[in-house]
Amino acid sequence: MAGKPPLESSFERGIFASRWLMAPMYLGLVVSLGMLAVVFLRELAYYAPQVLTMSSEKAILAILTLIDLTLAANLLLIVLFSGYENFVSKLDIGEHVDRPDWMGAVDFSGLKMKLIASIVAISAIHLLKRFMEIGQQAADAVFGREELFWLVVIHMVFVLSGVLMAAMDWLSARAKKG
């Protein structure tokens, strides 16, 4: 930083250090991951005793609920690891045997794609659950035609957003090459 005025250098160091203001947010996401784990275990404890008496449709709905929660937890982990490493500091865990291959290699563009893919998957599972509940009085009272229509529209917006983000990343990568 030779040649810069001391005030400018101090200001830039302060801005760079401000990234640590994100640390409490990532800690909050760790707490959120714990909350999801508790909800997952609660759902599992609710459905497990019913396994011998539940219908196949109810079993599939229960499993989709657990998958939905697992995908949300995976999404949280992706945001935690990638976000922290991209915006705050590198995780100093060396070559731990359990270290995911993608960790440290996902840039912001890759993070966006992983996020939208997870959101689309979660949305699809939620929509599938609603479709499977069609004809059940309790579900029909909550999710009528209009609600199902909007669930499909919202899902399609997520899908279209993912396609557009992928297209923008592809165009951006092509522009950098040429």
TrEMBL record:
Subcellular location field: Cell membrane
Coiled coil regions in record: none
Coarse class of the protein's main subcellular location: membrane
Transmembrane segments: 20-41, 61-82, 102-128, 148-168
Keyword annotations: Cell membrane, Membrane, Transmembrane, Transmembrane helix
Transferase among keywords: no
GO CC annotations, alphabetized: plasma membrane
Record membrane topology: Multi-pass membrane protein
NCBIfam families assigned: HI0507
HAMAP family tied to this protein: UPF0114
Entry similarity comment: Belongs to the UPF0114 family.
The protein, known as: UPF0114 protein EV655_10734
Highest classification ranks of the organism: Bacteria, Pseudomonadati, Pseudomonadota, Alphaproteobacteria, Rhodobacterales
